[in-house]
Amino acid sequence: MKKIWCTLLILFAGNVFAQTQSYFSTKNSLYISIYHSGSMAGEYYTIDRIKQIDHFVFPDTYYIENFAEENHRLLVYDSVSNQLLFSAPLSAPVFDNYLKTEEAQSACGNFEEFFVLPLPEKTIKMVFESKRPENPDTFTTIFATFLNPKTAYIAK
Questions:
Q1: Separation of alpha carbons 86 and 61, rounded Å
Q2: Which of the 8 DSSP states describes residue 155?
């Protein structure tokens, strides 16, 4: 009985990985420039530009990680099924250091960041999450948006 369950588990895991992997192009990637802004009162993300990169910059196993030690992360979901397809840490040390300053108590700081993800074949939902100083152990959704690679403004 254990062998049957193990076999089913392996087949299911392989099928999920194959579905996730086939969701993205294996030839192109997206470079996305964002602004990460805010103060102690709150924060927000704004997408500045999206550019298609004509080469694939990911290894075969890059899709989903937890990034529990990070303060900011990007989660990419299928827009229809809401299945998690991809995750990446958002490196924001300048923003995090800004939040420790006296200025951040009353003024908004604005910092440019970027990330790269595989070019999706279908519409995705991108969710930007952060751990806020008032709740440092839990990720909170700061911004969510949909990206349709066929209609979005993607520079080539």
A1: 10
A2: B
Looking up tokens 């995750």 gives 87
- 35 DSSP 8-state letter: E
| pLDDT at site 57 | 67
pTM of the model: 0.79
DSSP code per residue over 84-153? EEEEEE---HHHHHHHTSSGGGTS-EEEEEEEEEEEESS-EEEEEEEE-TTSTTSEEEEEEEEE-TTTS-
| Edge-to-edge order in the sheet of strand 84-89 | 84-89, 72-78, 124-131, 139-147
State the 10-residue block means of pLDDT for the chain, 156 residues long. Answer: 39 38 77 92 92 76 70 91 88 85 94 88 93 88 92 76
Taking the alpha carbons at both ends of the chain, their separation in whole angstroms is 53
H/E element, 5: helix 2-22
